[in-house]
Every structure is written in structure tokens, then in C-alpha cells.
Write a structure and sequence with these properties.
Elements lengths: L10 H15 L5 H14 L7 H24 L5 H16 L10 H16 L5 H17 L4
Helix pairs in contact: 1-2, 1-3, 2-4, 3-4, 3-5, 4-5, 5-6
Amino acid sequence: MPKQGTEGESESLRSARQHLRAVEAAFTSPEAALQLESGLDLLEATAGSDEWQTAASLGRTYTERFASLIAARIEARDVPEPELKHLLKISRILGRSTFADAGRVDIPALTIDVANRFIDAMFEGYPPEEKQRELERIRNLLMRQPQP
């Protein structure tokens, strides 16, 4: 049986909360992606346990929250290339999560939108045909969503 925390939750669930709060506090930091993966992995590891309902609720809430943050940032339209790269990484992590289909935000579509904007930024000034080829290549990679 997992060690119980003072709030009646396992250390694993408490740790997941800490990781996800860290992501929320520093969403644009490079460490956010690692924290997000760790937090979601800890939540997913509770599948089949008594804590699954709590973990699933947390996973859905944070996934929706982070996807909404990405969507709002993308709507700003003046997102620099390094930030787009970071947002793409975060959206891919969210897309691989068990909780990705639970929210109002279409995470695969969001990921493709971020990728499109990232490619636009990277290939600014290049011929449209070259940009389109790269977009198709990236879109195909994203649709496969390989597991880490």
C-alpha cells in the first residue's frame, strides 16, 4: 500500500500535484515540460487504484487549463519562435496524456495550430512550397504521436 500523506493522499498523488502546480507557476520555463510529464505520469500510475477518480479529475483539470493557456497565447499572434517551440512541446505532452480527450480544447488540433505557427516563424521568407512541404511533414509526425 502506498504511503499516505497528511491529507489522506498517497505520496505519489501529492507529488503529482506539486509537479503540476510547478508547471502552472512557471508555464513558460524550460523545466515546465519535465514537470508536466512527471506530474501526468504520476497521475496515470494511479489507474486502477482507489485514487484514480481523484487523479483523473486532476489530470483533466490541469490538461484543460494548460491547453487553454496555450490556445490563449497562440491567439496573441506575436509569439516568438522559442516560445512556440516550448508550447509545441507542452501540447505534445498533453496530447499523449490519458486525459487529453476529456476537455473542451481539441488538443490534436491545438498542437497542429502551434506547429503551423512554429513552421511559419521558422520558414519566414522561404518559398510557400517549401513551407507547405515542411508543414505536411510535421503534421504527419504529430498525428503519429509517438510515446516517450
